[in-house]
Amino acid sequence: MLVRLTYILLFLVFIGCTSANENDVQREDYRDTIIEMDLGKKLNDKIPDSLFLYRNLKYLNICCNELSNFDPRIVELSKLRKLDLYHTDIKNFPDEFYTLTNIEELDLTSMYKLDYQSVLPKLHKFPKLAKLHLGCNQMKSPKINFSRMSNLEEFGFINQEELDIKHLLIDISKAKKIRVIHLSGNNIETLPLEIKLLSNLEELNLYNNKLTTLPEDLIELKNLKEVTLIDNPVNKEKIKKLERLMPKAKFIY
């Protein structure tokens, strides 16, 4: 009787171990299927250790949290393509940050404590970077090496109190694939002729500026599809003239 009971107990232990191992495998398999993680407004000042079990993440949002330090373990998430860091208190990034070579989209808007003078000159180290958003950091012109950002297609530089728009457009034009630019909330009164340097431009967002009209040189942008002028004191007759000259472009005002 005792021998039989012993065999039964060993069998139950074996079954229990097998089930536990299967559950571990199932949990690991499940984690491998997760490619997006939205932790915006859900953290305090620290990223949970459990995040780094999700090694196949492609999109990570940790915006709007009181994070003052960049967790270096994020570089272990080597498959990341999109990283939203806006409205955090991160001050700088370690050199390892720039080894995330699969990054395609990066949002650094409203990072008031970030050392932009140190960070921006290094952004070209992301070879696949296609979308970059900055804003609310009060720079006349960002110190970015646009000529080395060969895949950059979309750039946002918003809510700057003082903006050297002419110099900025000259710099952006060095990124030859630029198709979309966001320049809302920059107190722009006149759009300089340098806008025509952006020969591949398709979308131009000028929302909430001080523009009354646009230069007719805009007609040289043959790929332009959409111009947003909402919340600008535009002269509608002048914009309608541009609409007639550019029938393929949509003007929103």
UniProtKB/TrEMBL annotation:
SUPFAM superfamilies: L domain-like
UniProt keyword list: Leucine-rich repeat, Repeat, Signal
Keyword Ubl conjugation (UniProt): no
GO CC annotation terms, alphabetical: cytoplasm
Domain of life: Bacteria
Cross-referenced InterPro entries: Leu-rich_rpt, Leu-rich_rpt_typical-subtyp, LRR_dom_sf, LRR_domain-containing
N-terminal signal peptide: 1-20
PANTHER family reported in the protein's UniProt record: PTHR48051, RAS SUPPRESSOR PROTEIN 1
Record protein name field: Leucine-rich repeat domain-containing protein
Provenance organism: Fluviicola chungangensis
